[in-house]
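User: Hey, my collaborator sent me this sequence without any context and asked if I could get a structure. I don't really work with proteins. Can you help?
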Amino acid sequence: MRKILTMVLAGGKGERLYPLTEHRAKPAVPFGGKYRIIDFTLSNCLNSGLRRIAVLIQYKSHSLDRHIRIGWNILNAELGEYLASVPPQQRISEDWYRGTADAVYQNLFLLDNEQPEFLLVLAGDHVYKMNYADMYNFLLAKQADAVVGAIEIPLAEASRFGVIGVDENYRILRFDEKPQNPAPIPNDPTHAFVSMGIYLFRAPIIRERLIEDAKENSAHDFGKDIIPRMIRENRVYAFKFQDENKKAVKYWRDIGTLDAYWEANMDLVAVDPLFNLYDQEWPIRTYQGQYPPAKFVFAQDYQGGRMGVALDSIVCGGCIISGGRVQNSVLSPNVRVQDHADVRESVVMENVVIGEHARIRRAIIDKDVIIPPKTEIGYDLDSDRRRFTVTESGLVVISKGMKLHASFDSSG
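Assistant: No problem. I've predicted the 3D structure and written it out in structure-token form, which is a compact way to encode the shape of the chain:
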């Protein structure tokens, strides 16, 4: 694996996740209580034995850069190892990254400096577990010039993705971006291969292809431009996703919408979640602040009957459930839930305070929000739409640091 240089694409805006991406890049969005979305890709790299990793950042990158700097500064530079964020440097032109391929093209100096035999390109905004060494061994066995990570999904759902058409040996014959009539997998007419946004290349070949693409009037995108051209001129294969999550159904999520983000978080609090955070053989690393343990107070109070409890929930360090109730929810560090507050089916991020007698249902509350006493969120969607983002499914999203006033509470 030392022959591989890894580039993680982490500059996307994540417009469909707005307002969670109002102040941060999509890979920096908190997920699962104490993680950020990029932690899953970076943990895959670490668990796969990759030790030269450049994270290509761009859009509102401050929090992402800080997270990488303080949470992932774990490799030994004396051994030639590093995990570093690399901002746009305008080495080649004055343009920002114009596409996924252009982002790598503008950082070809890394390839020239490191002289790796292979280049692994990853998306920094997907949640999954994968050992990239399996993909590397597959490329060597096939004597391929490039390998594309592929997951099989039902044919009826494939039109939302880049669909890979292969022969019986998994050599790619075609690559169609969101086709109306997806090509099925050979011998399996009910499923199609779709691209996972994972690409492994022989470094000299991809360098040549990126230089060629930069001269053309294209989208400068791996899926739309680079891979289709390589299919015609090089040996390109699809690697069938081998899931390290150890569940009956393979888990790979592009958490691209607010509803998908909420649903993925809600899955984590299930008795048997689809995605396993607790597998010690495949640890998920992140930056962890110095928070005290979570605390639940007021087992009973004879005057008011209050009780501090959390049921079927994830509760991170620094949280205090003080006479309130939390159920089927994810609480990031340093959340306060006060007397008689009721929080259900919600994602609550750092430093949020839920005031006394507040009622929260099916909500995402971003960092540094104070919910005034007796406020109701998720119970009157017409009222919620006047002040918050509300999705078509009725999920209420409150922006980071938003100021709420007591005049908005249900008591008037």
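In plain terms: Residues 295-408 form a domain with the UDP N-Acetylglucosamine Acyltransferase; domain 1 fold (CATH 2.160.10.10). You can pass these tokens on to your collaborator as they are.
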